[in-house]
Design brief:
four-stranded parallel sheet
Length: 165
């Protein structure tokens, strides 16, 4: 638990215009995979990225971190489950943009009854898709599929994304 002094200092920093922006930028940049700025090209943005072993999300190491979240329901999942629950029973194809290794599929199946014919397609970057396919094969998942092509959403009954945009 932060001390009262730390809390007060943080409040002053957050309420001081120029200092606020510098502090938030520092906080943002110290997190792995965090980038900030406006760039003319992706290559220019990559060159400006913080130095570190990984730039972007197309890395197996990043996908594997998500394996620890396959049973973790978060507070933000409640409204998703609320709206998805009455729809999922009549859904043949759910397209999950940015679904990582199928986190939502694995977590939500504890709370929703998936129809036998459901096809849950996760669209993500190639390294994550490969990790997701491998995990689904290990677990014997028949309803979970992976792609890097957003055009596969064309026939989806539900276009789902949570945090990717």
């Amino acid at each position: 638990m932060p001390s009262l002094a730390k809390t007060l200092i943080r409040e002053v920093v957050l309420r001081t215009p120029y200092v606020n922006d510098r502090f938030l930028e520092w906080e943002f940049r110290r997190r792995q995979q965090s980038f900030r700025g406006i760039y003319a090209t992706f290559a220019e943005a990559t060159l400006a990225a913080p130095t570190g072993p990984l730039v972007g999300y197309n890395h197996k190491e990043i996908a594997l971190v998500a394996e620890g979240q396959l049973d973790s329901l978060h507070q933000g999942d409640y409204p998703i489950l609320f709206w998805l629950a009455p729809l999922i029973g009549h859904t043949a194809h759910l397209f999950d943009l940015g679904g990582n290794i199928g986190i939502a599929y694995y977590v939500y199946r504890h709370y929703l009854t998936y129809p036998d014919a459901l096809r849950w397609t996760v669209c993500d970057v190639p390294a994550t898709v490969e990790a997701g396919r491998n995990l689904a094969a290990e677990k014997g998942e028949r309803q979970l599929h992976f792609t890097t092509d957003r055009a596969e959403a064309d026939d989806a009954d539900i276009y789902f994304t949570a945090g990717a945009l």
